[in-house]
């Protein structure tokens, strides 16, 4: 039987998982759950590659993963099997067979993240797993002015919690939209990739600008200094959702904004 390569799109609520990546210290990760399930289905060890590592508590609307299987099952049969046995907070929404060289992480060209803030001191019971409640008054226009300094290709080493490494900290942010509807403020980030904790630290820094603790032009100074301690707070994981992963096809660009 010839080995086949499959691409899946999945959704998950990240609150009760220790992030995407499997770990020796726990089996409670998204990748770990998927690999165990596929191994049970095929009777062989399966490696599932994700488009990136979401942190503990982070959610996904459109995470992408890929894996090779020795199987004659159809994509529909794999989809049905996975959703039958996955827990209710993880769901596979599509399965397709792709060329052998496709890799969900190495072939990704862009990602879109959403961070949700409730700007109120009144609890929202049914949203509590997905939003960060921030009661202080916020100047949305000041946050937009600050965000404009981050658009383009920059060294974002000040906006990551990762320890120093040889890997580049240069990334390109294509857009940061800040939308306010009622009490909710949505921060939408689109870029070619994001560093460890990058979206959450940028959001924390923008919120500090919104309260007047920082000036919009401080963003440029933070990037120039390149030190984590000059950036803002790391906001909670539960407000963050991976919305979409882009590849070199038209669908990423055509579907923008439809979520």
What can you tell me about this protein's structure?
Mean pLDDT is 93; it is low at 251-259. The chain has helices spanning 30-42, 75-85, 140-148, 198-210, 218-225, 251-254, and strands at 4-12, 49-50, 59-69, 90-98, 110-118, 132-133, 152-155, 170-181, 184-191, 240-246. Strands 1, 2, 3, 4, 5, 6, 7, 8, 9 and 10 form a 10-stranded mixed sheet that branches. It contains 6 helices and 10 strands; from the N terminus they run E-H-E-E-H-E-E-E-H-E-E-E-H-H-E-H. The chain has 259 residues and is an alpha+beta fold. The relative contact order is 0.18. Strand 2 and strand 3 (59-69) form a beta hairpin. The two termini are 39 Å apart.
Task: List the main descriptive attributes of the protein structure presented here.
259 residues; globular; ten-stranded mixed sheet; alpha+beta; 6 helices; disordered C terminus
């Amino acid at each position: 039987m010839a080995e086949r390569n499959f691409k899946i799109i999945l959704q998950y609520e990240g609150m009760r998982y220790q992030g995407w990546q499997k770990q020796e210290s726990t089996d409670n990760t998204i990748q770990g759950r998927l690999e165990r399930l596929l191994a049970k289905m095929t009777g062989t060890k399966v490696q599932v590659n994700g488009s990136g590592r979401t942190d503990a508590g982070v959610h996904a609307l459109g995470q992408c993963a890929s894996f090779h299987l020795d199987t004659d099952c159809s994509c529909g049969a794999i989809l049905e099997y996975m959703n039958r046995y996955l827990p209710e907070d993880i769901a596979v929404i599509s399965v397709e067979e792709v060329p052998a060289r496709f890799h969900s992480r190495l072939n990704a060209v862009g990602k879109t993240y959403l961070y949700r803030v409730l700007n109120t001191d009144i609890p929202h019971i049914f949203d509590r797993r997905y939003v960060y409640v921030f009661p202080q008054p916020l100047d949305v226009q000041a946050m937009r002015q600050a965000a404009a300094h981050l658009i383009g290709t920059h060294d974002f080493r000040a906006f990551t919690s990762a320890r120093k490494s040889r890997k580049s900290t240069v990334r390109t942010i294509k857009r940061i939209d800040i939308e306010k509807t009622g009490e909710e403020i949505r921060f939408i980030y689109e870029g070619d990739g994001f560093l460890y904790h990058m979206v959450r630290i940028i959001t924390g820094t923008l919120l500090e600008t919104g309260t007047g603790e920082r000036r919009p032009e401080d963003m440029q100074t933070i990037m120039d200094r390149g030190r984590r301690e000059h950036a803002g707070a790391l906001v909670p994981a539960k407000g963050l959702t991976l919305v979409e992963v882009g590849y070199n096809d038209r669908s990423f660009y055509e579907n923008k904004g439809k979520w």
